[in-house]
Design a protein that fits this description.
Keywords: Membrane, Transmembrane, Transmembrane helix. By secondary structure, this protein is of the alpha+beta class. It has six domains: 125 residues, no CATH class; 99 residues, Immunoglobulin-like (Sandwich); 113 residues, Immunoglobulin-like; 188 residues, no CATH class; 123 residues, Four Helix Bundle (Hemerythrin (Met), subunit A); 35 residues. It contains 26 helices and 17 strands. Strands 3-9-8-5-6 form a five-stranded mixed β-sheet, with no helix packed on it. The protein has a four-stranded antiparallel β-sheet with strand order 2-1-4-7, with no helix packed on it. Strands 10, 11, 12 and 15 form a four-stranded antiparallel β-sheet that branches. A hairpin with a 4-residue loop joins β8 and β9. α10 packs antiparallel against α11, α19 runs antiparallel to α24 and α25 packs antiparallel against α26.
């Protein structure tokens, strides 16, 4: 009884370990029996996921399916026949095999010997208790799922790998074609070839590819851009195909639900989301989701930037889901903010808004880009007036963005010439309203009242006079639009000519740049404008200095006196002064900057006076060549001295460097080592101690390199002289160059005595070339002075004044000197008086000149 109770207690305690052990045995037997079945199923599913049925002919697919079905059935029957569920005793034996001493088997045993012996029974019960205690640690063993002995080629692993690859890289849509394939088989429609075809063509600007509907039968949901076109073509003449859709409007020859038999083609534009269904051979059903095309966006990314020449730069950023196709910048006059005074008081003529095209990025980058719109508004009527800027962009679907509006003042060009500013103001009044024609005429007549004060060339004056006459003629009958435009264009050209006409001269450009910078200081211009004006001033200064250097011809006879009384100003000093001016302006110290600017202005004026009078102007090319030759001569002399010192050290190492050994007598009264060295040179042909020469830093090799550098420099100076230089100087410099080359070769051969001889020849030829060049410079100066003297003498008769008297030493006529010989003083006086009266009768002359002539006539 106790044994039965123990068995029941043991069964309850080992219930779950036994169940898990039984499940493990089931898994082992199932895998061993069914591994060919699931391997074949995995392979078939992987083939379907990879779309094998789409790439093989229909007949081949059907044949393969039949063969796989037979093989699958055979392996399934074999697996079912071999599979057997495990018994409880097998589970108990598997669990007992994992315990030490197999206690489960011991607990099921019965005592057969010594049943009547109490001691024997006590021993048996103690044994059972020990076995029962060992069962407390019983746990279900892991099943043995290894199949290498049954599948040595690893076919099951290949099938699992193919299935995983198909799940990751395959397309589940191909399962839909399996259903279609089965439907066709059941319907008896196994013919090869498509019964219809369809394409979804997105708009070209989207950059999306065309979709082939026949490849998308397994997919139920499709996303297409707005405006896509679905093209369908039906080929089957033996059966009908049914089309159902609610995504767009079919052509008038078709209905929303229609049957198409035979060969039919149609196109459908996607206008909304909906369903598309094709029933029939290889039909399909799709849910079409239309992706709406979002409207583009534009916004200002920086404030507008205006230049001094009236140019506007406006940076903006535009974006669209498929790219921006176009953009405009609309400029509208803010009439309510205009200061309606002077010429703007009249009611303006109707003016259309200015519409400008915005710059766009390349098509590949037009989805989101930043660009800058640049436009020159200087000639425009609204330049300098308050306006409203409106930016708007458009996409390929002709959707427009919201308008980005900015209120600003349209930039205008600043005219510093008073006459040019007056002409531009009159032009603006004419363009503002044709009724301002009379006012503009009065303004132009007022500024032209004193022509000699206009500082305008003859052609510019004539252009302004012609424009004024045209305006006066047009005002008789009233300005018409054609005359308004023609006169405004002419006045703009005249204003530009007045403002920039004199800028061909470097001095005029410099003065203009200084005036503009001074005006900017007075009105407190921005840092950007100051930087631009300083850049303009630097360029004008460079041009002015270059012009002085090219046109200056100083008098060589006065050069020494000028150097004592004048102070040279270098380009570096001018640049430093301009840098200091710019720094002061950036710091807001305008008063100090204006003082330095005035100092710079005086410096430039002094440079002009110096250049035209007795000052120390920039050097001429001949003077620069003379200085370069002097420097080359000094370098050649230094090189010759160093070569001679090296020669002394070679033959008299004990003599200190730089000391003449011939000046030190020896103890026995003989000449020093210098004489001995010279005798050795005469006997040895110039070959000295090579070991001594090689250890010196100024040895023959370094001397040869320096001699080559001097020869190259002399060659450069000859080229700088040009073909127009004096022939004697060029020949002397050529001979000096050949002597330098021979000295260089001698130094390379360590023949220092020969090198010294050739260096002496080079020095002499350099001096000869400098003498010839100086003589040519003096002759050029004398010829220039002679021409100036002849010009001055041509102003009077025989070098005197109009009365034939010789001029004084200071330029004034000597009133106490007699008239020239052979002259009739009374006749000459009569001629002069007649000439004065003739000029006084010419009323076209200026009033000041006429008044001066009257005073002269009254004295006689």
């Amino acid at each position: 009884m106790k044994s039965a109770d123990a068995q029941n207690n043991l069964s309850k305690r080992l219930r779950w370990p036994l169940r898990f052990t039984w499940a493990g045995l089931v898994a082992e037997r199932f895998l061993r029996a069914f591994w060919p079945v699931y391997s074949l199923v995995f392979t078939l599913v992987a083939a379907f996921l990879f779309g094998v049925q789409e790439r093989l002919p229909f007949v081949v697919v059907v044949g393969l399916l039949a063969a796989v079905s037979v093989l699958l059935l055979a392996t399934l029957v074999r697996a079912v026949a071999r599979f057997r569920f495990p018994h409880r005793s097998e589970s108990l034996a598997r669990l007992d095999s994992t315990l030490v001493g197999q206690p489960l088997a011991a607990l099921t045993d019965a005592q057969t010997v010594g049943l009547d012996d109490p001691a024997s029974r006590a021993v048996w019960e103690a044994h059972l208790r020990r076995m029962e205690a060992k069962t407390a640690s019983a746990q279900a063993p892991w099943p043995d799922l290894r199949l290498a002995d049954r599948d040595p080629n690893g076919l099951r692993l290949m099938a699992v790998t193919a299935l995983l690859a198909a799940v990751i890289f395959g397309a589940p849509k191909y399962f839909g074609s399996v259903t279609i394939l089965s439907d066709n088989l059941l319907a008896g429609q196994g013919e090869a070839g498509a019964q219809w075809e369809g394409w979804i063509q997105p708009p070209s600007y989207t950059g999306k590819p065309t979709l082939y509907l026949n490849d998308l039968i397994a997919r139920s949901d499709l996303q297409v851009p707005e405006g896509s076109v679905i093209a369908l073509r039906f080929y089957d003449e033996s059966s009908a195909n049914s089309l159902k859709q609610n995504i767009g409007t079919l052509p008038t020859t078709a209905q929303a639900s229609a049957d198409f038999g035979g060969t039919t083609s149609l196109s459908l534009s996607v206008e909304r989301s909906g369903d598309l269904s094709i029933k029939g051979a290889y039909g399909g059903d799709w849910s079409i989701e239309m992706l709406a095309d979002a409207a583009p966006e534009v916004r200002l990314s920086a404030p507008p930037v205006a230049t001094l020449d009236g140019e506007l730069r406006q940076e903006f950023r535009a974006s669209d889901d498929y790219g921006v196709a176009a953009g405009t910048l609309r400029v509208t006059l803010d009439l309510s903010a205009v200061d309606r005074r002077y010429g703007l008081h009249a009611e303006p003529d109707p003016q259309e808004d200015l519409v400008l095209d915005l710059p766009l990025a390349f098509s590949a980058e037009s989805a989101d880009f930043t660009e800058t719109a640049v436009e020159d508004f200087a000639p425009n009527l609204w330049a300098g007036l308050p306006v409203t800027l409106a930016l708007q962009v458009e996409d390929d679907l002709e959707q427009t963005s919201a308008v980005e509006i900015l209120e600003t003042t349209l930039p205008k060009r600043k005219f510093f010439h008073p006459l040019a500013a007056s002409v531009v103001e009159a032009r603006r009044d004419i363009l503002w309203a044709r009724s301002n024609g009379l006012r503009a005429e009065q303004v132009l007549r007022a500024v032209m009242h004193v022509p000699q004060d206009m500082n305008l060339d003859e052609s510019g004056f004539l252009m302004l006079r012609v424009a004024l006459q045209r305006l006066a003629m047009a005002n008789i009958d009233g300005l018409n639009p054609q005359e308004q435009t023609m006169i405004a264009d002419a006045l703009w050209e005249i204003a530009l000519r007045i403002e920039d006409g004199g800028l061909e001269d470097a001095k005029a450009r410099l003065e203009r740049a200084q005036d503009r910078l001074a005006e900017a200081m007075e009105r407190g211009a921005s840092d950007e404008e100051i930087a631009e004006l300083m850049h303009e001033l630097r360029e004008a200064m460079d041009d002015y200095v270059k012009q002085l250097a090219q046109t200056s011809e100083p008098n060589p006879d006065q050069q020494s006196a000028q150097n004592q009384d004048s102070t040279d100003v270098t380009q570096d000093e001018i640049d430093a002064l301009m840098d200091q001016i710019q720094d002061l302006m950036e710091q807001g110290r305008m008063a100090e900057a204006q003082q330095l600017l005035e100092m710079l202005r005086e410096m430039m004026e002094n440079m002009q006076v110096t250049q035209g009078g007795e000052g120390n102007g920039p050097q001429t090319p001949a003077e620069r060549a003379m200085e370069d030759l002097q420097e080359t001569l000094r370098d050649q002399q230094d090189l010759s001295d160093e070569a001679f010192r090296n020669l002394q050290e070679r033959y008299n190492p004990s003599t200190p460097q730089g000391q003449d050994p011939s000046a030190q007598p020896s103890e026995d009264g003989q000449e020093g080592e210098g004489a001995t060295g010279e005798q050795q040179l005469g006997e040895g042909g110039g070959k000295g101690n090579e070991e001594t020469d090689q250890g010196q830093p100024g040895g023959s090799e370094s001397l040869a390199q320096r001699q080559q550098a001097l020869r190259d420099e002399l060659s450069r100076q000859e080229q700088a002289l040009g073909e127009g230089s004096d022939g004697g100087s060029r020949e002397a410099l050529d001979r000096a160059g050949r002597a330098m080359e021979e000295a260089e070769n001698a130094l390379e051969d360590e023949d220092i005595p020969l090198a010294l001889d050739r260096q002496s020849e080079a020095i002499e030829e350099l001096r000869e070339g400098m003498r010839a060049l100086g003589q040519a410079m003096a002759e050029d100066s004398n010829s220039a002075e002679g021409e100036d003297g002849q010009t001055a003498q041509g102003e009077g008769r025989d070098g005197g004044d109009p009365l034939g008297r010789a001029p004084g030493t200071s330029g004034a006529s000597r009133s106490d000197s007699p008239f020239a010989d052979g002259e009739n003083p009374y006749g000459r006086a009569r001629e002069l008086l007649d000439e004065l009266r003739r000029r006084e009768g010419d009323k076209t002359r200026p009033d000041q000149e006429l008044e001066y002539l009257r005073r002269l006539i009254d004295q006689f």
